[in-house]
Task: structure prediction
Amino acid sequence: MGLVVQKYGGSSVADAEGIKRVAKRIVEAKKNGHQVVVVVSAMGDTTDELIDLAEQVSPMPAGREFDMLLTAGERISMALLAMAIKNLGHEAQSFTGSQAGVITDSVHNKARIIDVTPGRIRTALDEGNIAIVAGFQGVSQDKKDITTLGRGGSDTTAVALAAALNAEVCEIYTDVDGVFTADPRVVKKARKIDWISSEDMLELAASGSKVLLHRCVEYARRYDIPIHVRSSFSGLPGTWVSNEKPEKPESQGDQQVEHAIISGVAHDVSEAKITVVGVPDKPGEAAVIFRAIADAEINIDMIVQNVSAASTGLTDISFTLPKSEGRKAIDALEKAKGGIGFESLRYDDQIGKISLVGAGMKTNPGVTASFFQALSDAGVNIELISTSEIRISVVTRQDDVPGAVRAVHSAFGLDSDSDEAVVYGGTGR
Result:
């Protein structure tokens, strides 16, 4: 049997009973003949509690020390899990991100993985051990400082290790039974997906689906690592995410080649909108605006530029970004105001994004019409629109998001006829 990498989220190891339950599952994989590497998140809400504690001590903690603090959560989990496994009669060794060879850039709080050199992990496996790795963390290549990978970093750690170790699969264990056609906390009749392409999953993740983070899916797609999303609270088969669809039995017959396949509906209420008002409509102005944003190391999502007014020659440019980066973006644009010459800035953090994702949408105009009709029937007003070959996204009022998601989900026949989706934990991670 081959090597598998398993990742367990915070809700799976939230307490001692959860850790012991996870240890039994890991030992079972070992007994089945696999070499097993486990990546673990901090227990429950430990990371959020550490963030709150840091803010009580310092309103703007230094990035280096903040990372040093946050990595403590995963270290606690990995040590306790190794103890639980040893108590079941199997050998386990725990490793921090740096000990596991996770090498990153020097951007604290949201570092990116540069390389993985899992020499110590390979040695531990060769000696018959189960390797337990603290997720969400690494070590910077230049200064050798401890770094963290940002939200969802444990998923990325797991996929990166799977690629470096040539694992057969990366199993992501969470508190739901797989990937659903919508967030089961919002849509009770969301349907579990048995298989989804890496491309569709990447769009869902980037659009707000919390079961997998887009960095994790992007890494898996690049290195062709199959991801198996499962619940640590049940034995159900979960969802496979891969570049190529597994072969289906001949008895299932052929599918329509050009049928618009809708994978799901995602939503995101963690973004804000900035509108740059009164921008001179001439070449180079947008470049200056977004260069200021890029220099502040802020990622943006949707962008819309209005048609300029003939009388003034001015236009408005709106874009969305994480709420947590809102103040930094406003400060960066105010500093660049002299070089841009805009009139004012508007900030709105009461927005939400709804996205419809599926292959074949571009060649089926009925998809777009049905999407907007469903929003209209639900009384939802649209503020921004963005599209790709496999996604339509709109921005609306945050309060309208739950109803809009349910309306679109039903309009495309995605509601399940079976029992409601089960959420075993509470966070989806």
